[in-house]
Amino acid sequence: MNTPGLSQAGIDAANTLGQVFPGVPQNLIQLLNSEILVSDAVNNINNLRCSFSGDSEILQNIGTLWVEAAAAAGADVPGTPLGPAICAKAPTNSGDGYN
């Protein structure tokens, strides 16, 4: 990781995203190659983005990295981006839009 000043929380978020994100383009490639159905690709991608790593969901890691990278760059630190309330496993979400 070559981001000077990035906090440990930012590094952890980036590492988690680096491990999980390759599954998204993999599903898109399989879809383009007619190896899986559209519904299966959508479900697989939603499962990836709603999956948990330790105590945090993948969408939370995106927010953490966003905030920590801004701080490391000396930029105004933005608030955590609002994500869609689609992850049934997320205790803060009241609904699950894809089920």
Describe this structure in words.
By secondary structure, the protein is mainly alpha-helical. It has one domain. The chain contains 4 helices and 2 strands; from the N terminus they run H-H-H-E-E-H. It has a two-stranded antiparallel ribbon. A hairpin with a 2-residue loop joins strand 1 and strand 2. Helix 1 crosses helix 4 and helix 2 runs antiparallel to helix 3. 13% of the residues are buried.
Rounded radius of gyration (Å): 15 Å
The class by helix and strand makeup works out as mainly alpha
Number of strands: 2
Strand arrangement in the largest pleated sheet: 1-2
Number of helices: 4
What amount of the residues lies in strands? under 5%
Shape: elongated
Q: Gap between N and C termini, in Å?
A: 36 Å
Q: How would you state the average pLDDT, rounded?
A: 79
Listing every helix as H and every strand as E from the N terminus to the C terminus, the arrangement reads HHHEEH
Total number of distinct structural domains:
1
